[in-house]
Amino acid sequence: MLHYVYLINRFQLHNKSNEVMEELRKVSEELGRDYEFVVSDTPEEAHKALEGFRDKDYVITAVGGDGSINHVLNAIVGTRNILAFIPHGTGNDFCRTCMESMENGIHEVDLIRVNDRFCINVACFGIDADIANDDTFIHSRWIPRTMRFNAGVIGHFLRYKRGRRLRVESNGEIREGNFATVIAANCRYYGSGYHVSPHSTLDDGKMDIFEAGSLPKLRMARLILKMKKARHLDSPDLKTYQTDHLVVSADRPFKANIDGEPLPGSRFELEMIPRGIRLDFNKEVIMRCRV
Asked: Which are the contacts of 122, defined by CB distance < 8 A and separation ≥ 6?
């Protein structure tokens, strides 16, 4: 019998912690699961608690947003642990892909290695990374969770000028210049529901890449609006392709974003890791526990 560890992050769930734990308790007892709760108040506490589970076939369940999933992923990758999640974040974009494309059960899914970190959803470089890294919007208590990324889009769009100068290497080609964004997708959504890569799957061994050069504001606005509903794939302002290896670099440090988490550096090497981790997915448990 599998043993389930529910990682409760009080720093993210706030006053919903007890409610979430009670629903998880009910569901687990109905399903006859062997389970325990690990409650933490900081990401550091959560990471330290996971060290005791590294050599066991436990299902480690991240209860939180895409960032929480990323933290748990990086703590257990390379171990015998199985990843699971209950979405309680700002965007919950990884959950969207799973709900659309996955049957209940344990699946071997791809990962993207970004330097010495691992990414399961999307890595981005450019204006979208700047938006996702901007605590003024993303962690604002005054903006509803579902509107935070959109608020950031408006704020950064108004300040947008020429994009960021980058060097992009992939499939034997090198491109240098100002880029509005470079996106490497393992899943279909990012930015709280932007349908950036509608054909991505978690087991094809490829990253779906989307590059946009420096654009005038009007064309940038048109591209952003199209991306929300996956109408951007035929845009002349967008270069799209697949690869299993990508390098994005700049002549000065900046912050990328992976799975909603900031990642600083000046050179980012991305490599596809086919079937890099096991994922336990149960749609009914997720629907009941995402209070």
From this structure: 93, 183, 184, 185, 186, 187, 189, 190, 196, 197, 258, 259
